[in-house]
Specification:
CATH topology of the largest domain: Creatine Amidinohydrolase
Helix content: 25-40%
Strand content: 15-25%
Number of strands: 17
CATH superfamily of the largest domain: Creatinase/methionine aminopeptidase superfamily
Radius of gyration: 24 Å
Distance between the termini: 50 Å
Shape: elongated
Number of domains: 2
Strand order of the largest sheet: 4-3-2-1-5-6
CATH class of the largest domain: Alpha Beta
Amino acid sequence: MLEARREQLFERLKEGIAVIRSADRRAYDEYPQDSDFRQDNNFYYLTGLETPESWLVMFSRSDGRDSVVLFVPERDPSQEIWTGSQVGPAEVKKLTGIKSVYPSSEFEKRFLRQLARGAQLAKYTHLYLLAGVGVPGVREIVDLGLETHRSISDLGEPLAELRQVKDSVELARLRRAAWITGEAQREAMRSVRPGMYEYELEALIEYVFRLRGAERVGFPSIVGSGPNSVILHHDKNRRRMEDGDLVVVDVGAEFEYYTADVTRTFPVNGKFSERQREVYELVLATQEAVLEAIRPGVTMRELRAIADRYLREHSSGLCGRSGCQKYFVHGLGHWLGMDVHDVGSYTSALEPGMVLTVEPGIYLAEEGLGVRIEDDVLVTEEGHEVLSKNAPRTVWEIEDLMGRAP
């Protein structure tokens, strides 16, 4: 699968050199290595390696004789007592399928100096780099590339195009991440009680993440109750939840570098009030209208128009004379994958293998009443599949799980 991804990237490149730097470990004064290392997404996508201080160099040729070179640190037994066993150049060949693997210490000699001299590498007219502030290692390469008069292009665009459509390995990980997140939402519904603090619910949710195999959260967990339910990215999670509150729980487990993003809104006391039910069911019906329209060929813009139209036509009087549309203040959804807001163009028509969120919401600040329902959705050949379907969505399902259904 890794080799197939690299081949697909080569198909998107002109004759040239693509360079991707791994993430670095953060050093501490007291400890020689940071134990919470997370690899750069693009480097991991193409190599499957969690090794820091590494370089991937891809040589794209017009005659099809493409090649890949990888530079990774040599093993340092004196450090492995702190970090555990590490992989060196010999082991990396087997793990990645890349035959040309050298120590990172040789990167300057084998690549940078040749790039500067322009001898063996002169025929490669394009230099592909990941743009962005703080991208490790780019500064010196950009300077050298300018000196050799190469055309410098952003590697992020072809990589984003490639990553936007998920392969079978990615989909398996996203399914697992969504399932874990759904299980955490279920446990939150079963356990919430008036008098609990938002951070207690947050701790429970993230405990379930780790219990089910997630390595970390995909983003800071949002647990917003009562007046905090109308704050879109509330993540302080310090408020005491009261009887009669709704709580918006927007969370995502990360499983093997792929994150879910699932939001549920439910009553702290287990029973929706009549007003809460009215608003909730409008948001849910809006989401259902969008889900029914998801299929290959549709665009994000068209899906948003469906949501807006549904709210205009079905919310008369519920949020005042103007209806509820103006209280839907954020986007309908986003791409999902290695990043919670994953890479990819929002003008692209949906294709099988794309994964997106669908998250309509209504936020009535004057009432302290916010409702958001968000699911992770895979585009299939026939239509769509909801990956987060194990998390209850209907009023009856939620109240039943919470033990308050009639």
